[in-house]
């Protein structure tokens, strides 16, 4: 049962020769073929390429090379450019777009020997919290296929939860890794802004976007993050600081760890959700951690702040999709304006258009100060709140989402309700902080996530805290029925 | 008719002479086949990111220091959003609220010798757009993105200029300066140096500015002058006939010599500027500024002052000779050989014979056919009276066309001046003997005939008689002294 093994275990299987990367790849391709049709988690399958990469990995291993990801399969969110492979970003606009280069994340994982199985479904241009805005149709939650998997990295989350891959990449602009990780019962890591290169990641909101990883444990995520992270001279916002050995840092005792309970996260939180968090806190206390109440007074402003900043940036970032050089172009444009209007009108979906219009509005003359500038000021206040909290505690803790996965179609026509799904995750993006979501129990037989947020570049602390929890619990081992 | 005052401000775009583009690694060389110098960043492919070329910042700082401006310790790149096919990202990366250079000034010498100081509000870095090509394509436009991403320094003046002549003089001075600094090749035909002019008029004495029109994309000094003059006349005529000037962008048509409305203020784009989240603010350390300061060449004004002082030249001559680094260097090299006491002679020749020969043949001074040492060798022959100035011009032409040294030409053509008094006297005697009537008339009081005798002697000596000597000897001889 290769798909139940951790990355570390798979590595040992490969090293010992009990299996090969080709065999592993065939195994996961087989599961994809069998199980994905019910989930719609993937946009493009790259079986042939995967087998070629697997053969190459086996050859490298035979030549004496080793490495924790050498020959391990993965799935990339379809927001990462992959050389020679369609990179759709979940949009009709890029349905025909074959990227001519690899994103830095893709190149690094390729160099580490990881094998790309497929490109994962996602909300169009990463704009959505349910994966329902994808041009390729909604992704279904393997725990209950009438439910959404969350978004925007819903395909990556569902594929990891369904054991279609040992791990997957994702991006997190307002919770797009942590929220779907929570709703599908997997571990999702959003690193510090600047820790992982954004080069080759189709931009949604540049000051918030951050690439990260879905895995079935913090220990697996640590292995992947180490391979992904690091300074990239092609991304001016990436940070030139050495990448620590994350896997080696795991297992440190949690005694004395100060965990902050964010008061604002618990205001109005549903009782069953509160109870799950308190159960988790008990685990931490049993491991020797202390819990302290902390307050981030400006945190409740994070959703409105985000929905000014993110659309503003996206309205500009998506201007390059104009039908001139690549991507969708309308039939028989009559003139330049017609080319622009119809190519964009037909190429973009409703949610993307909504955000482009919102963003255009908040940047307009006469509104800029009241919206964009004000939002930037609030963003600073939220960042300062976190900074103050981290003077008292090592990490803060809370729920990842207010509710478990909701039904497909339930919120798609009500953008504001949909936006409120990200109420607990957006703060970390606005402040550029690293965060993790990991499974901590169930509500109505659907998985729920526990979220940890730490100071900038505290990935070691976060991964170790999550790993400590997972060593003491088995929520992360639970598998949706039919995917064991 | 009211007395109108003209108010002009210029926005000059100078392409910075970096090897690669401001945010990508593509080459900036002019004239490559379309789209061969545009990489994925220039083409704005999904996922690509800009990385600032530090050389462009260094050049902007250099410019700032040369105009006594403040170099911002922190400046910010902003996005200027608008759709156009030659703008691949749908926004131009520019600087808006926080430019890299703030508040400088430049002294400009006008034709009449007065000096005017023009304020420079700011200079900011930005990327150039590509080009739309309309020729040779039926029902379509071509896009060449080779120019997209070429670094530009936009130099924005205060509305300090009061005539087209002042505006042109200011623009020429900036042109001189950026070439001195070696931050821009100044090639206006290739668009490396161009400007927009903001023009308004107001009744003299009124403080409030009139409504301005912005004339776009002027790429020659002549067009700047003409466009402004046309625009001033248009605005005055409009106001005097009861109309009002509207704020708008206008285009200068050099074929018709007129400006035409391009778009009004109402039609203007809302550019929705905001800080570019892909680029960090540019932090400039004091040490960087000082390192750049150490690389500053002698600036045009300093050079002109030095020329005027050291070589006793007029302000005008000093200004002309310092108008480009190359011209100044040529002049100094020539003077070095000849001696500072003869600098005025060298100045006259460099500004006169040499410049006209260069202009006539369209040759840059760096590759002049007559080198500074060769010119000074020629001038030395004037100084030591081997040849006259007039003969020297003939020698110069021969040097220019044949590439031989002055002495060789003087020798070969037998142009050496006659300074032997005896020889000159002999010729004078012969001329006097051959022209008895004129001699008699002269002696009877017709002084004007002196010139006739000079001419005759020169003719007989093929111009080689030393003029001063000839004058003296002739005077004595004609007077009939023994």
List keywords for this structure.
heterodimer; A: 484 residues; alpha/beta; Amidase signature (AS) enzymes; 8-stranded mixed beta sheet; 3-stranded mixed beta sheet; 11 strands; 40% helix; globular; B: 482 residues; alpha+beta; Arc Repressor Mutant, subunit A; 3 domains; 9-stranded mixed beta sheet; 3-stranded antiparallel beta sheet; 15 helices; 39% helix; 20% strand; elongated
What are the SSEs and their pairings?
The complex is a heterodimer of chains A (484) and B (482).
Chain A lengths: L6 H10 L4 H19 L2 E4 L1 H16 L10 E5 L26 H8 L3 E6 L33 H8 L5 E5 L6 H7 L2 E4 L20 E5 L2 H11 L17 H4 L8 E5 H4 L4 H16 L3 E5 L7 H16 L18 H12 L2 H13 L6 H24 L2 E5 L15 H5 L6 H6 L3 E9 L2 E8 L5 H14 L12
Parallel strand pairs in A: 2-3, 7-8, 7-9
Antiparallel strand pairs in A: 1-3, 4-6, 5-6, 5-10, 9-11, 10-11
Chain B lengths: L3 E12 L38 H13 L3 E2 L2 E2 L1 E5 L9 E5 L5 E9 L5 E13 L3 E3 L8 E3 L6 E7 L6 H17 L12 E11 L9 E6 L2 H20 L7 E6 L4 E7 L9 E2 L6 E2 L2 H8 L6 H12 L3 H7 L3 H14 L4 H19 L10 H12 L5 H14 L3 H8 L7 H14 L1 H8 L6 H11 L6 H13 L3
Parallel strand pairs in B: 12-13
Antiparallel strand pairs in B: 1-10, 1-11, 2-6, 3-16, 4-5, 4-15, 6-7, 7-10, 8-9, 11-12, 13-14
Helix pairs in contact in B: 1-4, 2-3, 5-6, 7-8, 7-9, 9-10, 12-14, 12-15, 14-15
């Amino acid at each position: 049962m290769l798909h139940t093994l951790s990355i570390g275990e798979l590595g040992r299987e490969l090293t010992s020769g009990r299996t090969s990367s080709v065999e592993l790849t065939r195994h996961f391709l087989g599961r994809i073929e069998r199980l994905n049709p019910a989930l719609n988690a993937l946009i493009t399958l790259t079986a042939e390429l995967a087998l070629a990469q697997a053969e190459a990995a086996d050859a490298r291993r035979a030549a004496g090379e080793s490495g924790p990801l050498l020959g391990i399969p993965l799935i990339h969110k379809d927001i990462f450019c992959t050389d020679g492979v369609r990179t759709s970003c979940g949009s009709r606009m890029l349905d025909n777009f074959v990227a001519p280069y690899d994103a830095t994340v893709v190149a690094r994982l390729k160099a580490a020997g990881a094998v790309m199985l497929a490109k994962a479904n996602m909300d169009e241009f990463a704009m959505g919290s349910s994966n329902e805005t994808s041009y390729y149709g909604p992704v279904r939650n393997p725990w209950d296929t009438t439910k959404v998997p969350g978004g925007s990295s819903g395909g990556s989350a569902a594929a990891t939860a369904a054991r279609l891959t040992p791990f997957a990449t994702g991006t997190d602009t307002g919770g797009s890794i942590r929220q779907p990780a929570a709703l599908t019962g997997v571990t999702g890591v959003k690193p510090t802004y600047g820790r992982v290169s954004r080069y080759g990641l189709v931009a949604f909101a540049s000051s918030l976007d951050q690439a990260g990883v879905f895995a079935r444990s913090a220990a697996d995520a640590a292995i992947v993050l180490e391979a992904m992270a690091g300074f990239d001279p092609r991304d001016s916002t990436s940070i030139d600081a050495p990448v620590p050995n994350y896997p080696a840092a795991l297992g440190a005792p949690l005694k004395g760890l100060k965990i902050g309970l964010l008061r604002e996260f618990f205001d109005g939180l549903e009782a069953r959700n509160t109870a799950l968090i308190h159960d988790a806190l008990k685990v931490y206390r049993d491991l020797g951690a202390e819990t302290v109440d902390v307050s981030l007074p400006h945190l409740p402003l994070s959703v409105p702040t985000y929905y000014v900043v993110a659309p503003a940036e996206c309205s500009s970032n998506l201007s390059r999709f104009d039908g001139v050089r690549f991507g969708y172009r309308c039939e028989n444009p009559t003139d330049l304006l017609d080319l622009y209007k119809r190519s964009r009108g037909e190429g973009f979906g409703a949610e993307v258009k909504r955000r482009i219009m919102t963003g255009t509005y908040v940047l307009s003359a006469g509104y800029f100060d009241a919206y964009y500038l004000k939002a930037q000021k609030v963003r600073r206040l939220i960042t300062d709140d976190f900074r103050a909290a981290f003077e008292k505690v090592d990490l803060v803790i809370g729920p990842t989402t207010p509710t478990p996965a909701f039904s497909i179609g339930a919120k798609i026509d009500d953008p504001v309700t949909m936006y409120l799904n990200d109420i607990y995750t957006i703060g970390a993006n606005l402040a550029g902080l690293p965060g993790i979501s990991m499974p901590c129990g169930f509500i109505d037989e659907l998985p729920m996530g526990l979220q940890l947020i730490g100071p900038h570049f505290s990935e070691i602390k976060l991964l170790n805290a999550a790993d400590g929890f997972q060593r003491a619990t088995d929520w992360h081992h639970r598998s949706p029925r039919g995917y064991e | 008719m009211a007395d109108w005052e003209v108010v002009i401000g210029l926005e000059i775009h100078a392409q910075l002479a970096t090897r690669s583009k401001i945010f990508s690694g593509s080459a900036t060389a002019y004239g490559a086949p379309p789209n061969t110098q545009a990489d994925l960043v220039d083409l704005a492919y999904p996922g690509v990111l800009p990385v600032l070329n530090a050389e462009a910042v260094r050049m902007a700082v250099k410019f700032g220091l040369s105009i006594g401006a403040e170099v911002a310790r922190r400046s910010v790149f902003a996005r200027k959003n608008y759709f156009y096919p030659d703008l691949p990202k749908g926004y131009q990366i520019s600087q808006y609220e926080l430019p890299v250079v703030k508040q400088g000034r430049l002294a400009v010498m006008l034709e009449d010798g007065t000096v005017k100081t023009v304020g420079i509000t700011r200079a900011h870095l930005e990327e150039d757009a590509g080009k739309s090509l309309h020729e040779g394509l039926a029902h379509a436009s071509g896009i060449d993105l080779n120019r997209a991403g070429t670094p530009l320094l936009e130099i924005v003046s205060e509305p300090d200029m009061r005539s087209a002549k002042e505006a042109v003089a200011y623009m020429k001075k900036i042109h001189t300066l950026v070439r001195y600094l070696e931050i821009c090749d100044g090639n206006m035909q290739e668009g490396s140096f161009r400007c927009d002019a903001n023009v308004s008029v107001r009744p003299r004495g009124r403080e409030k500015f009139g409504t301005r029109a912005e004339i776009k994309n002027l790429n020659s000094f002549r067009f700047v002058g003409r466009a402004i003059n046309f625009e001033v006349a248009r605005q005055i005529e409009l106001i005097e006939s009861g109309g009002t000037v509207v704020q708008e962008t206008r285009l200068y048509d050099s074929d018709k010599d007129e400006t035409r409305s391009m778009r009004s203020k109402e039609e203007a784009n809302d550019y929705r500027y905001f800080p570019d989240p892909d680029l960090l603010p540019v932090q400039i350390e004091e040490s960087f500024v000082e390192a750049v300061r150490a690389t500053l060449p002698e600036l045009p004004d300093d050079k002109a002052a030095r020329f005027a002082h050291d070589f006793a030249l007029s302000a005008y001559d000093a200004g002309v000779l310092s108008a480009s680094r190359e011209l100044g260097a040529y002049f100094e090299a020539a003077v070095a050989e000849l001696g500072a006491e003869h600098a005025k002679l060298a100045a006259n020749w460099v500004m006169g014979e040499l410049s006209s020969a260069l202009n006539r043949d369209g040759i840059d001074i760096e590759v002049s056919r007559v080198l500074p040492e060769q010119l000074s060798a020629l001038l030395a022959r004037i100084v030591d009276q081997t040849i006259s100035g007039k003969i020297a011009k003939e020698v110069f032409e021969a040097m220019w066309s044949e590439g031989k040294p002055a002495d060789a030409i003087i020798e070969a053509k037998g142009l050496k001046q006659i300074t032997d008094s005896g020889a000159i006297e002999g010729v004078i005697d012969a001329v006097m003997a051959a022209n008895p009537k004129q001699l008699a008339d002269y002696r009877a009081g017709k002084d004007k005939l002196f010139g006739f005798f000079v001419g005759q002697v020169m003719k007989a000596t093929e111009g080689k008689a030393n003029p001063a000597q000839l004058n003296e000897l002739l005077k004595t001889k004609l007077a009939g002294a023994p």
